[in-house]
Amino acid sequence: MKINGVKGMNDILPAQVGRWQEIERMAREVFALHGYREVRTPVVEPYALYARGVGETTDIVNKEMYVFEDKGEDKLALRPEGTAGTVRAYIEHGAHVEGPQKWFYIGPMFRRERPQKGRYRQFHQIGVEAFGIAEPAIDVEQIAMLADLFRRLGVAPVVHVNSVGDAACRPAYLEELRGWLRARGEVLCADCRERTEKNPLRVLDCKVPSCQPVLAEAPRLLERLCDGCRTHFDAVRQGLDDLSVPYQVNPRLVRGLDYYVRTAYEFTSDALGSQSAVAGGGRYDGLVETLGGPPTPGIGFGMGEERLALMLEAAGRPVPESRPAVFFVSADEAGRREGLQRATELRRAGIACDLDARGGKLARQFKQAERVGARYALVLGANEAASGQAKLKDMVTREETPVALADLASRLGTGPA
Ligand code: HAM
Residue 120: pLDDT above 90? Predict the structure, then answer.
């Protein structure tokens, strides 16, 4: 019986994986330039970590998380995001004693959402978290770093920034907003009415067209920020201006996780359709304390690799592929042995090459050379093995050039691969 993979959980096949490797290589490079170091945490964590960290009333925890009991003992969850686990590890290993920390992670996350383009049940995030820095300079550096990563990859999503306030200014605003929304309950959708009571800020994120004109008039937190949040937000804007990072202030930007305070940001692209956010993040100054650590400010983002891959595809970026410089074709047993020996030498010299380990008909071996995209083919038989001389055949032009087998590494190492 044929068994298929789980709905919404995708295979990334060898023909596509070059795209992912390019994204990850570039991310690692950019993060290293900014002092971020990698952390690897488990994909399974205690359920309570997300209930407390991300928030029990969020869709992520409430509706989308894969929760299970470990042989009837602990209630566990597949991680739906990377921040809570990273904060747990930060606290558990007492990392705060060494001063501010900048960490990044790359890995699969799980949310049981309805699958569609850009939305999957297993997806991959590249995320960063910076701990111990309350100053707006780190917000600016992080947003600029992400913009730079996108620029290097040849895409330019739009940056939206907002402030979602803090414990000093948000509670009063939420009460005001709730009252305002209750008064308009009849013209809002059922989801909005439910969220008005549970999580009124999320109402502002509603995508239902009939709710839009109503919500456009809603009171704005950005106009009701306390002095601390206002000063912080102004400094973030000033910093982005100083670095010439283009951005839009979006007073309706709210995030789907409860831990955010002050800065919230998102990178969006039209190329993605309805799931337009390629990355999102913000500040979470209370989270470390909520999860049992010392009071520690923090800020980070998560970027969806699937969505970034879709953007690169839409931008017409080819999938980078590694191709062998040369493919050894064997005409007989002596040629086969010679080929394997030369291939081993080249590989030790760091030159990618391949051969058809099945041997057999020349035509079939050439076909294989073409399929793997080899730059050159080299036919070896008893004569070539004895003389040490062979012909390097260009797979595109079909031109043949004599070559001494002893010179292969230097010829291929310097020439076009
Ligand atoms: P998030 O906005 O929930 O934030 O997710 C970040 C990114 O992950 C999204 O912008 C999107 O690109 C991608 N993503 C989310 N859900 C899916 C899905 N079902 N399928 C495909 N891609 C998806 C967080 O997760 C926060 N932990 C980010 C953060 C880090 N905030 C502070 N530090």
Answer: yes
